[in-house]
Amino acid sequence: MIKLLDLFCGAGGAAMGYHQAGFKDITGVDIKPQKRYPFKFIQSDALEYLAEHGTEYDVIHASPPCQAYSVTANLPWSHGGPELIEPLRELLRRTGKYYVIENVPLAPLEYPVMLCGLMFDLKVIRHRNFETYPRMLAPTHSQHPKWVKAKTLNLYSAFSRGLTIITPAGNGFSKKDAAIAMQIDWMTRDELAQAIPPAYTKYIGIQILYALHQSAQSDPKIRCQATTSIPSDAGSNMLTAIQGATQ
Questions:
Q1: Range list of H helices, the chain
Q2: Whose CA is closest to 117, among 128, 130, 101, 131?
Q3: Pairing of the two strands 128-133 and 98-103
Q4: Which residues pair with 9 in a beta bridge?
Q5: Structural domain tally of the chain?
Q6: Taking a C-beta distance cutoff of 8 angstroms, is the pair 103, 85 a contact?
Q7: What is the CATH number of the domain that holds 78?
Q8: What count of other Cβ atoms lies within 10 Å of the Cβ of residue 53?
Q9: By three-state DSSP, how is residue 166 classified?
């Protein structure tokens, strides 16, 4: 069975997308306890675990902390954060496995694919970039509609007052709205603020499964030994995902 490692996993938004794409054996790693993570979980330093166990997996996803690359990083009250992408990338490449690094648009990713909730008919604008090996196809991005940010406390619903799209960050959104917008129903409000919609990694995961399928067709020893766990309809699923995201 294809084994996916989910580093810096948080509460599992990315992992759920891979599960929806067809991955069944998913292990999440985070330095903090994640009691709502929906799959197998190991509490550990992500980079240390990757260095020791990365080659045991077929696909590796990583969502390192984004604070150092955020638009707020240079504000006087910002505490920034560790810059982990370069050491992470080096470790990922050493494994020789397929990998995905997810982060904010200003992060130093190589040839990233940008995904937004509007590409998947979600009620959320949340741009995230993905560096992938192998390279992945990007859907088209429709123009954002014009809207006015709601001046509201987090106790009130923006949707009930007429807004159709939200940006769940900071204190300006309700948990209920964020859960609806991102299609995540198991997280706390703080976890939702840090999560990515599962639709993003479902889209990427389908393409990875197709790439694994193609590798197995050409050489059964490449990448993944358990080819029986690759869906036989991986190719048609990828086409359907791309068509759905680009309509």
A1: 13-21, 46-53, 85-95, 175-182, 189-194, 198-218, 234-246
A2: 128
A3: antiparallel
A4: none
A5: 1
A6: yes
A7: 3.40.50
A8: 15
A9: strand
Q: Is the dihedral of CA 35, 39, 42, 43 positive or negative?
A: negative
CA neighbor of 37 nearest in space, from 16, 59, 58, 65: 16
Give the Cα separation of 92 and 87 in Å (integer): 9
Count other Cβ atoms within 10 Å, centred on residue 25: 16
Domain that holds residue 15: 3-246
Residue 161, token pair as written in the block: 């007052």
> In angstroms, rounded to a whole number, what is the distance separating the alpha carbons of residues 115 and 239?
17
Residue type, 49: Y
Query: Two tokens at 106?
Result: 């200003």
Residues 6+ apart with CB under 8 A from 19: 26, 38, 39, 198
Token pair for 108: 């130093």
User: First-to-last CA distance in the chain?
Assistant: 33
Give pLDDT tens digits along the chain (247 positions): 899 999 999 999 999 999 999 999 999 999 999 999 999 999 999 999 999 999 999 999 999 998 665 554 454 454 556 789 999 999 999 999 999 999 999 999 999 999 999 999 998 889 999 999 999 988 888 788 765 454 455 555 677 676 778 787 766 678 988 899 999 999 999 999 999 999 999 999 999 999 998 888 776 555 444 444 555 565 556 556 555 554 4
